[in-house]
């Protein structure tokens, strides 16, 4: 994104652990071409993302947004907080964007942001990946529109288990992610993981009373 808080934009970003992000991307991207993710070895998929520079971009994003987290026009959220405290996350977004903060509206938006609501079959097309975005994503993988199969939903029927599938990561992939973090993120932030960032940021907010 070219937008910046210094240009008057209000930015919202969500941090999720690189391990869970990789697993989610693996399942999502293979779905673009109508494949079951288990047909593509995770280590091969990780290598593809690495060659495409996706990991470097992700880790640079962690650093960039962490360093700007206290700017009044930047809102940093954590994926696990959104799952555990969805209503509070919706309230914080509304407050940050200065939109309607009526309690009934917050409650309605919260209800319509749940997995049950968004994954209902009658809403499948509402949360399908737009065709233009699919084309861009496929091009990054060296594929064309002819390789696409059906539609790809942004919301899967089953909820992602926070940390549950991470145990399935091959040791080599886990080591690669750890080494990237230690090389890119740790020196710039002094934080050892996204969870460390989450706890540190929570303590900062508590001190500020926000």
What features would you highlight for this structure?
single chain, 210 residues, 10 helices, mainly alpha, 2 strands, Rossmann fold, two-stranded parallel ribbon
Textual characterization of the structure:
There is one protein chain. This protein has 210 residues and is mainly alpha-helical. It has a single domain, classed as Rossmann fold (3-Layer(aba) Sandwich), CATH 3.40.50.300. The chain is built from ten helices and two strands. The protein has helices at 18-32, 42-51, 54-67, 79-84, 86-97, 103-111, 115-118, 131-140, 171-189, 194-208, and strands at residues 11-15, 74-78. The radius of gyration is 18 Å and the shape is globular.
Quick recap:
The chain is mostly helical and 210 residues long. The chain has ten helices and two strands, in the order βαααβααααααα.
> Percentage of helical residues?
40-55%
The CATH superfamily is identified as P-loop containing nucleotide triphosphate hydrolases
SS-based class? mainly alpha
Basic shape: globular
CATH topology: Rossmann fold
Mean model confidence by pLDDT: 85
The structural domain count equals 1
Radius of gyration based on Cα positions? 18 Å
């Amino acid at each position: 994104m070219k937008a910046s808080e210094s240009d008057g934009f209000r930015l919202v970003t969500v941090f999720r652990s690189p391990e869970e992000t990789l697993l989610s991307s693996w399942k999502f991207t293979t779905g673009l071409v109508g494949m079951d993710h288990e047909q593509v070895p995770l280590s091969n998929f990780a290598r593809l993302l690495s060659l495409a520079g996706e990991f470097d971009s992700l880790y640079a994003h962690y650093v960039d947004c962490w360093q700007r987290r206290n700017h009044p026009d930047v809102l940093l959220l954590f994926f696990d907080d959104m799952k555990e405290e969805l209503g509070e996350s919706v309230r914080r977004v509304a407050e940050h964007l200065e939109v309607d903060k009526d309690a009934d509206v917050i409650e309605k938006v919260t209800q319509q942001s749940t997995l049950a609501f968004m994954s209902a079959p009658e809403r499948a097309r509402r949360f399908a990946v737009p065709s233009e975005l699919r084309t861009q994503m496929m091009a990054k993988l060296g594929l064309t529109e002819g390789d696409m199969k059906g539609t790809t939903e942004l919301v899967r029927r089953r909820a992602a288990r926070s940390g549950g599938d991470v145990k399935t990561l091959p040791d080599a992939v886990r080591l690669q992610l750890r080494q990237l973090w230690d090389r890119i993120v740790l020196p710039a932030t002094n934080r050892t993981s996204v969870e460390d960032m989450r706890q540190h940021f929570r303590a900062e907010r508590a001190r500020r009373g926000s």
